[in-house]
Amino acid sequence: MTSAARPMTRQRPASERVIEVLLFLAASVGVLTTIGIVVVLAVQTLEFFLQVSPIEFLTGTYWSASIRPYAWGVLPLISGTLLVAGIALIVAVPLGLLAAVLLAEYASTRQRNAIKPILETLAGIPTIVLGFFAINFVTPNLLKPIFGDAIGTFNALSGGIVVGLLITPLIASISEDSMSAVPRGMREGAYAMGATKFEVVRKVVFPAAISGIMASIILAASRAIGETMAVVLAVGTSPNLTLNPLESTQTMTAFIVQISTGDTPQGSVQFQSLFAVAAVLFTMTLVLNLISNRVVARFRTAY
Amino acid sequence: MTASTLRPGAPAQPRFEPELARRKLTGTLFYGACLAAIGILLMALLLLLYDVLSRGLPWLDWDFITGVPSRRPANAGLMPALIGSIQIALMVALFTFPTGVAAAIYLTEYAADSRVTRILRTNIANLAGVPSIIYGIFGLALFVRIAGFGFTVLSGALTLTLLILPVVIIASFEALKAVPDAQREGAYALGASRWQMVRGALLPAAAPGIMTGLILAMARAIGEAAPLLLVGASVFVTFVPNPLNGAYTVLPVQVYQWAGRPQEDFQGIAAAAIIVILLLMLFLNALALIVRVRLSRHIQW
Asked: Of A19, A243, A303, B133, which sits 20 to 30 A from B286 (CA to CA)?
């Protein structure tokens, strides 16, 4: 992607070389960060595994890091995380895709200018504000009237709903780009065959844009799994191997916050467990991001 | 008007547009669903704003802005968190600006399209997908422990810099890419070296985009809480922090602490603090817009 233009001079003064080296170093910060993250998580997780068996960690169904007897089965934290992310996707996929279709296919320029800021504002809200909204509005005013006493003050559902709001703009914007990239000629061909607008969207635009749409959903899932502040207030602090969205649970991110804000002494097993949980979280989001890249590369149709 | 009415007695012909009415109805319903989706999002946004404003406005006054946190909500104030947030945002800008712009310049202007640069670019895209709390854990290990900066504003700002750097690099990259090649060629035609071209022709032309990206990154830094919880943003700070030494807090962490308490009054001051965060972000967004318009006034091609 270098520019076509190049300087005419052949000899370059030493200062130019120094500048180039400095610029390269700046560009390498990202790679060094990635390596650093992997090394820190790996080393600290190994230290944790010297005290807790990896098999117990990965297959155990009970997690208790603050109350004796301690138990280090990470599955309840994973199930809590997946539960919240699943609810978030149930909220965000229809909302995000419908918004994307509206923007890409139906909206006039004026309507776009009215709709885009709604999504951008939603995307820009600090996530702690959504957590506040979950405990102060979603649970008491929206969920309590529906579920009554069946729903707890802290529950996975309210956390999932606000995380859904948070990832909707991501799905909408990537899917919209992908739908807008479908060439006009394909739509016009379908119209010429007598298709209605909805049929063009469903049978031409949607299949042609599927790689971008899938990628957006996978990225959104990754974002939901890693989200912290929107869930930490809402879902509670009880790791719970359940798929009941009305119960309190705990996500991996919320556990990390609980340990780091408590007075857990550094170097204790509890504190080390934070790194092991973070390693699981990092691996899950990394795998999703890589899959998303693959989906785009694999199913991209060049028009 | 169907075929059978044209020729009485002829067998009924299949209609040219089967079930058009039903198909159009499906389309209308779908369009309605699209509008409903936007309606739901707008409604959620308005409810959120209403909830925050109705709870927070009664608590928002000058004493609240200038006071320090207290165990009694009526006496509590925001000063340490507000100063902490501003210190963090300024330091993040200070660290991110040179590094992010330099990285983007390297990637657009210097790097040949080699394996190394492909790795650099893919890596930046992947970093943007790493959960923010993971950066907190890395910052804890690197800045707090290994570098020995401790739980200070400096550690917090460096951690957020790593988090926000990919965003700034991508924004600067786009801004540099948008400068037409004629600008580069013009500078080279005058005998400029590559760096002279970058400094004299490219950076002024790309400045609006770069500055906008940087200001929006500061807005992002002001809203971040999760990584800072790991690098020492404490939940109860009653003094204005010294950036290089000692405990600090920031606005979103203060909101987290207050909102985590069951008493209704603490929810009120949490909402008031949220209003302050949103106003700061609004201010930065407006600033980004003004900078963009003013800086691009003289650029025409």
From this structure: B133
Residue A121 C-alpha from the chain's centroid:
18
8 Å CB contact of A233 and B260: yes
Which structural domain, as residue segments, surrounds residue A69? 38-73
Do B41 and A125 count as a contact with CB atoms less than 8 A apart? no
Strands A71-72 and A63-64: antiparallel
Distances (CA, A) of A167 to A84, A296, B137, B172: 12, 19, 23, 24
Please tell me the pTM assigned to this model.
Answer: 0.89
Whether chain A has a CB inside 8 Å of the CB on B244: the answer is: no
Q: Which residues of B touch A1 (CB under 8 A)?
A: 107-108, 111, 113, 117, 177
A25 within some domain:
no
What 3-state class would DSSP assign to A66? coil
**B197 to A168: CB separation less than 8 angstroms, yes or no:** no
Interface check for B38 against chain A (CB to CB < 8 A): the answer is yes
A192 touches chain B (CB under 8 A): no
Does pLDDT of B17 surpass 80?
no
> What value does the mean pLDDT take over residues B14-34?
85
**Least trusted range by pLDDT, from A170-179, B112-121, B147-156, B195-204:** B112-121
* φ, ψ (nearest 5 deg) of residue A45: -65, -40
* ipTM surpasses cut 0.85: yes
Question: In terms of domains, do A80 and A114 share one?
Answer: yes
Residue A154: inside a domain: yes
A79 and A219 housed in the same domain? yes
- CATH number (domain holding residue A109): 1.10.3720.10
Which tokens belong to B178? 């948008």
Query: Alpha-carbon distance B146 to B139, whole Å?
Result: 10
How many separate domains does chain A show? 2
Q: By the CB < 8 Å criterion, does B43 face chain A? A: no
Put simply, the answer to whether A13 touches B48 (Cβ < 8 Å) is: no
* Whether residue A109 sits in one domain with residue A179: yes
Q: Is residue A231 part of a domain?
A: yes
Asked whether residue A158 falls in the same domain as residue A57, the answer is no
Closest residue in A to B45 (Cα–Cα): A122
